[in-house]
Amino acid sequence: MVLGTYKQIVHARSTDKQIQKISQDGGIATGLLCFALDEKIIDGAVVAGPSDEMWKPEPTVALSSDEILAAAGTKYTLSPNMWMVKEAVRQYGLEKAGIVTIPCQTMGLRKLQSYPIGVRFVAGKIALDIGIFCTENFPFESLKTFISAKAGVDFSLVEKMDIGKGKFWVHTADDVISFPIKETHGYEQSGCKVCLDLVSELSDISTGSIGAPDGWSSVLTRTEPGETIFSQAVDAGLIETKPMDEGKFGLEMLTKLAKSKKEKAMKEIDQRKELGLPVPYKASSEKEDPLANV
Amino acid sequence: MLARIKEFLGMEAKPKEEASQQEVEKVAEEEKAKPRIGYIHLSGCTGDVMSLSENYDILAPLLTEMVDIVYGQTLADVWWDDENPMPEMDLALVEGSVCLQDEHSMKELLEVREKAGLVVAFGSCAATGCFTRYSRGGQQANPRHESFVPIADVVKVDLAMPGCPPSPEIIAKTVVAVINGDMDYLQPMMDLVGYTEACGCDLQLKVVNQALCIGCGTCAMSCPTRAVGMTNGRPEVNSDRCVKCGVCYIQCPRSWWPADRIKQDLGL
Ligand SMILES: Cc1cc2nc3c(=O)[nH]c(=O)nc-3n(C[C@H](O)[C@H](O)[C@H](O)COP(=O)(O)OP(=O)(O)OC[C@H]3O[C@@H](n4cnc5c(N)ncnc54)[C@H](O)[C@@H]3O)c2cc1C
Ligand code: SF4
Ligand code: SF4
Ligand code: SF4
Q1: Strands B89-95, B116-122: pairing kind
Q2: Residues 6+ apart with CB under 8 A from B47
Q3: CATH number of A138-187
Q4: A116 → closest Cβ in B170, B267, B268
Q5: Which of B147, B164, B194 is the last residue of a domain?
Q6: Optimal mutation site among A83, A92, A273, A279, interface B, most CBs of chain B within 10 A
Q7: Judgement on whether residues B189 and B75 belong to the same structural domain of the protein
Q8: pLDDT (tens digit, 9 = 90+) per residue, A188-201?
Q9: Model-level pTM?
Q10: Could B167 and A139 be called an inter-chain contact, meaning their C-beta atoms sit closer than 8 Å?
């Protein structure tokens, strides 16, 4: 199953106009965190907040909806969100923390929860993990290169960046510039090459744009708590849903991309094993399902 | 059983205290022969056993009903000397590294290996040497004591539970796994027995240098001494603060990956 285990898969978006405006896609991450905070399901959340530098995120502990809103939108560069998890629990005293993670961060979080070897009284205080899809990530200098050299835009004028339909998009106040995603190849961090997870298979709820119409997100609920929170937000009218498009640009596309990411990664993993380089995953020959994230 | 452990560890919504209480009582009931446990204190700071005792809500039933503490100077007032032979133990928790110049420690460790079925390197001092790696002797009370090594350098070790200290949760999970014979859960701890030369620089050598780092920040979060920061999405270790406990590298999702257990724990 290339999309991991899930309970339901739907298209969804936040019904809040402000969230729709500032979010990357359907505003699921922001919308759900704000809902969970209001309902006291969480008492704060680790998000990729703004820093002093434009488009360089800083892992931040958000205690209010305003701080969650300030982190909306995708920053296509490294935000070590796991770094702030202990801070959230110790310094901010959170008992039920939420967090947004890309798949590899989700993996760090889940390993911590199953094997909290050297980290005391933190793992049990993470109440909600919203996983976002991820194909690859870029060092900040790579991102700067795309914007200035490939898109020819001054960094400070950029209002939104996006990856979709095979292109990297740069939005400014009065212009939208794009270049083929192929041109970003070679700029991504190399650790992504062995990553088997596009859709955050181990999160409570995962969400991303692939397979969804513009302004909407694809959402998969996975765990019990994830399903419960999502349903509650839908019942409360804060999230609206529509059935997943099963067709070529919907589920088919998502499945296809998840599969091709896994196939590419497995090739790299097998190659590394042959060379005797370390890699934490099994070779294709060592596992039942050659595409499983193990 | 696992579901109940999960509840105890707060992974499900159930009230913590209640769940853990039931969990421990259940194990206590189920066990006919209680495992005999010893605690051996070599060159460590007692932090590891303090961490064990931080399992407040399960400590009393753990010590009184689930296990028999048959040896130890902290948990039970039992000393080994010429008149009192060291008892047989199913499991010995050894805290602290062993000092090669300290004849008493060396003798005790070798005797423990004889008398215990399973020897656990309990805490980073025992597992990796941790901060005792920096010792160079010349101090009081014994200036000759300078060479402190992980116990696996001297005796065969069955399980390593690093951590400075290991978390109360991992201690509880491990004890329950041992009682249940849950070898799958214990496998990573068996593998960690070989990880005796730990250092914050492993993040650079074994992750970043190997094209595996993805900048998640788990290492920086895990470090008990705040020796690790994140600069441009990569760990940066301040070696002056590093106590060589190994926790950063052990928690890194790119060092080892317990996928099956995670799925099981999440019900996925
Ligand atoms: C590096 C990266 C690559 C991605 N690649 C894809 C892709 O290939 N396909 C796809 O469908 N989706 C991808 N996404 C996810 C997508 O861009 C949206 O973030 C996702 O759909 C959530 O949108 P939203 O409107 O629900 O979130 P919003 O409400 O806009 O909130 C976004 C949330 O993401 C968090 N965030 C932002 N940047 C980062 C970051 N760098 N690291 C960690 N967390 C961050 C913020 O804290 C915020 O809470 C990627 C995201 C990142 C960060
Ligand atoms: S592709 Fe995988 S490893 Fe790379 S940033 Fe995304 S989730 Fe992390
Ligand atoms: S824990 Fe994350 S950031 Fe740290 S070394 Fe491992 S992959 Fe890199
Ligand atoms: S950097 Fe921190 S966690 Fe890593 S070995 Fe040193 S003290 Fe331990």
Answers
A1: parallel
A2: B123, B164, B165
A3: 3.10.450.750
A4: B170
A5: B194
A6: A83
A7: yes
A8: 999 999 999 999 99
A9: 0.94
A10: no
